[in-house]
Every structure is written in C-alpha cells, then in structure tokens.
Amino acid sequence: MGRSPCCDENGLKKGPWTTEEDKKLVDFIQAHGHGSWRALPKLAGLNRCGKSCRLRWTNYLKPDIKRGKFSPDEEQTILNLHSFLGNKWSAIASHLPGRTDNEIKNFWNTHLKKKLIQMGFDPMTHQPRTDLFATLPQLMALVQLKDLLLIDHPLDHQTTRLQAEALQLAKLQYVQYLLQSSSSTSSSSSNHQNGVVSSTASADIELINLLNSLPNQQLLHHHHQFNNSEFSNMITSSTSMAATQPLHHHNHILLPPLCDPQEEEEQVPFLTQTTTTTTTATNGNDCNNNNDINNNNTNHNNNNEMMNSWPVEVLPSPPPSSLPQTSISNPTAGGGEGTSSSSSSYAGGVTSYNWTELFLDEPILSEISL
DNA sequence: AAACCCTCCAACCGCGTCGTA
DNA sequence: TTACGACGCGGTTGGAGGGTT
C-alpha cells in the first residue's frame, strides 16, 4: 500500500509545464521509452516527480492524442458508456481512441453533466430527476407559512382560495411522489444508486396521512375518489409495474391527472400552463419502443436513440398503463444547474404545469424563501 | 478601463490496486 | 503472508482567459 512521495517533498517543480520540459520529456521517451516513471525525471534531466511526468505524457504529449472539440459521435459514445459504466473514465477512454480519461472527465464535468441536468436528467443515473419531489414538502411548508402570514393581512376570498388549491395540488403531487417511493423501494435492487427511496413504511404512513388531509371534494374535483381497495390496488399495480418496467418508468407517477387543464386555468389564474406539442414525436416513439433500459444490451441503443435527438426536448416515455400519468419533463432551456424548476405533465394532451411559477413567482413567497 | 464573474482544463492529490521480494 | 514500491484512477483545485457589469 505504499504511496508515492509527494512532489514537493524533494523540492521538485510543480505547476504548468514549459516547452523545454515538454521537449525533454518527449525526446527522452521517444529515445528510451518511459520505463520506470519514478526513475525517468532524473534520467531525462527534469526536476519533476515521475507522477507529474506520466500525467504530462499520457494527457498531453503522447503522439496519438486527439485534441480539439469532441465530435457528436464521441459525445454520444461518452453518454452511452457513462450510462452503464458511471465515472469509470479510463474505461470510457479506452473506447475513444486518442482521448484521455482526464479529457473525457473534464468534458463530462463541464458540458455533458450540465446538459443532462438542463434536460431534467440525473447525470448519475441518466434518469429523469426526482429532486423536485424531494423539495415538495418544503414548498408545501412555504405555502402554509404564507397562509399564516396572510392571517394578519387577509387578501380577498378568491386569492386565499387559490392558495388553498395550490397547497392541495402540492399535496397531490407529493402523494404521487410517495407512491412512487413505495414502488421503487420494492424494486430497489434494480434501481442503482438512485437515492430517492426512503422507508416504505414511513412513506406509506405519510401517504395515508396526506390523503386523509385532502378534502373529499378535492379528489372529486379531480374526477376520482379513491377507496381503500383502489388505493391498495394502485400501490400494488405501481409496485409490480415498477418491478417489471424499465428504470426510467419508476419516475412516472401512476395517478389520474390532477385536474382538467382547461378547468384549472379558469380556476387558478396564476397556474401557468404550457402545452407541449410533442416536438418529440420521434423521441416519444423511440422511447416507447425501447422499454428495456434495465437490460444493458438494449440500454445502449435506448440511450443512443434518446440522445441522438439533442437538443430537442426529450419527454420520458409513458408507462404502458391505461392510467393517465404525470411525468417530469425537462425544464425550459436556460435553466441553471441545480434549479428545481420543472414541470409535471401528463400524457394525452401533454400539459405542463410550471411549479416555479406556481409557488415561487409570487413576491411574498420569494420574500419568505429568501 | 477596471472590477468582477464564470468557464474551462491542465495539473495535482490521495487512495486503491498490482507486482514483487 | 506481508511489506513495500510503483502505477493508475477519480476527485478536486487553481489559474488563465473571456465575458459582463
């Protein structure tokens, strides 16, 4: 387990390489090969540690290194390989002739990761992000806090009613998130490093509490009221579906639509609504036809087809269920890294609700959250 | 013009693994 | 089997350069 001594222990030079140093290194290796990296600097007349020489050679000076921008094909390959290799940069680099692991790692960190995030995908799992739902409790707390503040400064009846609706809407979305947690927990063995799953029991309890807290008319308003058996069936079906369906389907919410978009527009004026005409006709088809993301063999192809469509918006494919569903679509372009701005939509009309506008665009909420 | 901010990437650091005595 | 040296990998840093205010 010996560790290489640090360069500055011996007063060796660190930092950027000069052209003379480069020349010395290249000349020596071309004449003698690198042999022992530890011995090389002395033999080559360099005041550097062997590690630094190796790095300089492998990342910069080696003759077969390809420099310059990554081609779309290379970008595609990196994405595909990363989706099942993870941060194994050297393994990825071995599939890209002339590219170094360091270069690929930098390219990933500065470009591809951000690109995936902006598209609403988790760069580690390559699945639609779920952190919006993780923040829902806080969002709901904010709405409730706002209600409290308004006790001293009551607004008109219409406004408070809208706030209440927003809160109920948030609760419904959170219920969906918890449902999903329940299902993905039971299939967590196939869900690598997703980090979404909490305790099934606590999620279920929270779920039931939330459902109880929703007024009946809220559910009626949304065209359906769940009884106990339906509710159990829903969990069961979403669980079994999660166990048999592709990973990215875990992030679909298997509930009826929250409400009729037209109706909602009338009743909740500040709830913005964008209709996504599926620019992704081909994407959608591709996704629908590639439900085997769990399977490494087809995972590759799936990603290929999905990513080939850049920069076109990618919508997650709907689950093979007769139930309408909500899903996470990618935030609008230009959304910054780490933004929680997202939208939920449901198939068959593909209507998106902008949560940021729903909760955070109101001045009072901005004040609270700041 | 200057200050500030952001992005990019070469290089460093620390740890794990491998080979060998 | 163990200890040690060397190498390779992945995460992180820091400075250069470009853009913005």
Automatic annotation (TrEMBL):
Signal peptide: none annotated. Keywords: DNA-binding, Nucleus, Repeat. It holds the Pfam family Myb_DNA-binding. The keyword S-adenosyl-L-methionine does not apply. Residues 9-61, 62-112 form the Myb-like domain. Residues 9-61, 62-116 form the HTH myb-type domain. It is found in: Nucleus. Gene3D superfamilies: Homeodomain-like (1.10.10.60). The keyword Ribonucleoprotein does not apply. It comes from the Eukaryota. One of its GO terms (cellular component) is nucleus. GO terms for molecular function: DNA binding. Residues 276-296, 312-347 are annotated as: Disordered. This is Uncharacterized protein. It comes from Linum tenue.
